[in-house]
């Protein structure tokens, strides 16, 4: 009676279910990171955060979403309408698309491809078009300046972001993120690839336009940058895409440099709970390490001021690029030496 149900069909359906669960969970995590950011900023700055709507203010995110849904979605009459609508959709969808390549456990992930890291770099390059198109379509000089800044900043930092990751690829011998996690068994990449990690951190901040790399927005000088003219749901998509990017970049940092779902090297030695968490519930470690980096991004916003635009660009070419090149040179030399070449 159910002869049409084949193992291949079951695998396809189960893969779709996993993809929906992961992407919905990621969007919900990004939404509640807004609450987390406001609470942590309040804690570090010695003030109150959201604490009125629901327990611990958890209902504030829902209240904000309802407000955005009912807010007037105004479109400037002088804007290019199609591009104006397309930009926030691109911002949200590309950040979500980049997340599909990140494996959270040995068996849980949306996509498992041997070119996963290359796909991420390609999507990160496309994400700048959302900001650039939003700035251009608004037909506003403030928005246009924000879009131009974003283009220059992203192109600059993506150059050494790719170079910083090539050391990880050389060590693992693969662009597959699962292979990169497996290659860190016994020693996380953050130790042999410390120079690559130092170059990666500012590049990741620049890709998601987080403080102190939020020059495309720059409220103090460009009003609101590339989304000055946006309101309602379109503004909400731009805003949520930034937090989706933070979750995505934090997960990728854990995958590339901190062993992914692997437990800390000493934790497996704890009898009972150590082996259980390390082998039976690997998602616990991936989520815990990702949360630490998400909180770290918030701490950077709380602690560091925004530098001038020329200082940001100078740091990219005069410091980060040489560090990434030196790391690549040292990694290649060590790998060749170990191979006996």
TrEMBL record:
Give its E.C. classification number.
Answer: 7.1.1.-
The reaction(s) this protein catalyses: a quinone + NADH + 5 H(+)(in) = a quinol + NAD(+) + 4 H(+)(out)
GO CC, one annotated term: plasma membrane
For this protein, the parts annotated as crossing the membrane are 12-33, 82-104, 116-136, 157-175, 187-208, 243-261, 281-304, 316-337
What keywords are annotated for this sequence in UniProt?
Cell membrane, Membrane, NAD, Oxidoreductase, Quinone, Translocase, Transmembrane, Transmembrane helix, Ubiquinone
Similarity annotation = Belongs to the complex I subunit 1 family.
Q: Subunit details for this protein?
A: NDH-1 is composed of 14 different subunits. Subunits NuoA, H, J, K, L, M, N constitute the membrane sector of the complex.
Q: What is this protein called?
A: NADH-quinone oxidoreductase subunit H
Q: Which organism is it from?
A: Stagnimonas aquatica
Gene that encodes the chain: nuoH
